[in-house]
Amino acid sequence: MSARLATPGVEAARAELEVRGVETGDKLMSAAEAVRRLVPNGSVIGVGGTNHARTPMALLIEVLRQGRIGLTMTRPLSCFEAELMLAAGMADRLMTSWVGIGHGWGLAPVLRHLVENGQATFEEWSHLGIGLRYKAGAMGIPFLPTTSMLGSDIDRQLHLAKVTCPYTGQLLNAVPSLNPDVALVHVQRADTFGNAQIDGYQLMDADLVLAARRVIITAEEIVSADEFRSDPARTVVPGFAVDAVVHQPMGAYPHECYGYYEADLDQFTAYMQAVKGGGIDGARAFVTELIAHPDHDAYLASIDPTRLAALRRTAQEMLPR
Amino acid sequence: MTDSMTYSASGQSDRLIPLAAQHPGATPDEIMTIAASRLLEDGKVLFAGIGQPLVAAAIAKRRQAPHLTVLLEGGMIGIELMPGELPASTNEVRAAVGAQMLTGATDIFLMAQRGYFDYGFIGAAQIDQHGNVNTSVIGDPAKPSVRLPGPGGANDIASMCNQVVIVTQHEPRRFVERVDFVTSPGFLTGGTSRQDSGLLHGGPRWVVTDLALLDFAPDSRRMRVRALQTGVTLGEVRAATGFELLVHDQLDELPPVEDAELAVLRHLIGGSQEGGREASR
Questions:
Q1: pLDDT band at B96 (very low <50, low <70, confident <90, very high)
Q2: C-alpha angle with apex B51: B232 to A98, nearest 5 degrees?
């Protein structure tokens, strides 16, 4: 038995693309519309960023707001956004190398509760394992060979297939491609066609975008196509790979966006206190409060503006100069 | 959460080593971090993690290894730390300050696979006699009693870096005969089993604890006490270990923590870990 493929393989993803064609037009829309169109029940969602960096929070909260069931979340490192999806009963499966709230807050309590009681699945990969799954998906090939996970119980648990190098005889793990049904990615800058720039650490997002079957981008700023042409080497996402573009300032809040704002650790603490007091019901109450705001801008308007300004200022102070 | 917290690699302890010979004010975490920092040679490349590994690296850079290149799984290479502003994650802006290069997360691990990284630092919820590390589950993997965070980058670090250094508190429930789950491979079942699995390079070089510095015997690949922390006895190390330890022929004692080391460490940490912006992965 070999590793279960969560999505149709690269060949199916390619065939689908050939039938529907790429989308090169203007695709600016609201988060609500993008999620309604592109995130059906049962989706495997590739979540951009890692841990609390450039998490597409506005989109994930919109998924919570609209309500979906049977979701699988894939992400190299997961933070409390995964807990929110699990607690709300929308996702029941994570494919990741790590889930935590952020250190100092301990283990992920909802994940613990659900996994230890057999109500959710933590499909555990190495960090590079997730990266190579996306990369194979982005390259249009069904697997990539690596030494990652060899000898470990992660390997044993996933039943990874082995390959022998046809030249040297070296034994390697064959990591299958992952082409998520939809990728949700937050970036600093995009044009309305979906060309996007990512400042700072790129993480795995360019591969995730190319691998995914559908892509929603949220951007701190929407800039003109001409602006991209003036510095084209900074474009890391080609517009033709993107299905929807959403203008969403502070779209990763309460997580960080490099150069724009730091993570709001008070919100992490608020989440952990909600769970400490009420367990999984506390997490659900936290979600209920989040989705009571009609949209992300309304959520942001509920936060002390001096707090938001401070997060923006410190993020800028830490930029190279 | 209290019980499970103590299983996290981050578990803080207020236990002080009650020994006059050791620096009287140093906590076990500080002793361990400083011992780890001393292993780092100048001019090498270190794959670090948040918490003790990063602090150990920063101490080394301010002392014997100013040209140590420190990198993180978030894709940051050649970083510097801002004293008092330590990052909460390997994937955030505070971890990118002073970086010489920002690259992709997959790329960082591919550089590890390529063989560029001299050292890799990881923590452990459980570690066994062959240096295998568990940060996945306590109990039966099919129905765990504690679901831990998972490897993060640790599986790749343990598989790919030239010398793996495991930094963890020395407690019987951490030092177990056989880990419940091999998250990050050490020498597997000893002997040549690591190579036989396809891992042709690296392996655990050192285990640094608040009680001792340990390595692995050449053939059996079993854990061996190399040196004791100042004032600690072999009996204390054995009592804190859940399996039979080998002992090096020339068992050393590590020099005590110096005032200067402690001062650098505390300056780095500053107020940034109050309430805990994080611990090690």
A1: very high
A2: 120
Strand partners, A171: A164
pLDDT at A6: 63
Options B30, B41, B73, B171, the catalytic residue: B73
Tokens of B48: 């670090």
Residue type at B24? P
Match 């034994």 to its residue by tokens. Answer: A171
Per-residue pLDDT tens for B21-74? 567 789 999 999 999 999 999 999 999 988 889 999 999 999 999 999 999 999
The residues pairing with A91 across neighbouring beta strands, listed in sequence order, are A71
Helix, strand, coil shares of chain A, percent, nearest 5, are 40, 20, 40
Residue A103 is given by DSSP the state: T
Going by C-beta distance under 8 Å and a sequence separation of 6 or more, which residues neighbour residue B96?
Answer: A200, A201, A258, A318, B74, B76, B79, B102
Separation CA A104–CA A107 (nearest Å): 9
* Contact between A131 and A205 (Cβ < 8 Å): no
3-state DSSP call for residue B127?
A: strand
8 A C-beta contact, residue B127 and residue B179: yes
Give SS3 for A5. coil
End-to-end CA distance of chain A: 53
CB A152 to CB B92 under 8 A? no
Task: Report which secondary-structure segment, H or E, holds A164.
Answer: strand A161-164
What are the CA-CA distances from residue A163 to residues A167, A173, B197 (Å)?
A: 12, 6, 12
What pairs with residue B275 in β-bridges? none
Q: What is the mean pLDDT of chain B?
A: 89
Cis omega before residue B18 (within 30°)?
no
Which tokens belong to B252?
């050393």
B199-234: b (≥16 Cβ within 10 Å) or e? beebbbbbbbbbbbbbbbeeeebbbbbbbbbbebee
The pLDDT of residue A7 is above 90: no
Contact across the interface for B96 and A200, Cβ inside 8 Å: yes
- Residue A233 per-residue DSSP state: G
CB within 8 A of B250, min separation 6: which ones? none
**Which residue from B91, B159, B278 is facing A77, i.e. has the nearest CB?**
B91
Nearest residue to B96 via CA among B110, B113, B114, B108: B108
Supply φ then ψ for residue A112, to 5 degrees: -55, -50
Of A141, A154, A202, A54, the residue nearest B156 (C-alpha): A154
Contact status, residue B281 vs residue B153, Cβ threshold 8 Å:
yes
Report the candidate in A217, A170, A181 with the shortest Cα–Cα distance to residue A197: A217
Query: In angstroms, rounded to a whole number, what is the distance separating the alpha carbons of residues B134 and A296?
Result: 39
- Which of B147, B181, B188, B195 to mutate to test binding with chain A, by most A CBs within 10 Å of its CB? B147
CA distances from B249 to A183, B170, B218 (A): 56, 21, 13
* pLDDT tens, position by position, B248-279: 999 999 999 999 999 999 999 985 543 333 33
Helices of type H across chain A: 10-20, 31-38, 57-66, 80-87, 109-116, 127-139, 153-158, 205-211, 225-230, 265-292, 296-301, 305-317
Which residues are B227's β-sheet partners?
Answer: B213, B252
Q: Which residues of A touch B138 (CB under 8 A)?
A: none
Q: What is the pTM of this model?
A: 0.94
Give the H/E segment covering residue B217. Answer: none
Contacts of B122 in chain A (CB under 8 A): none
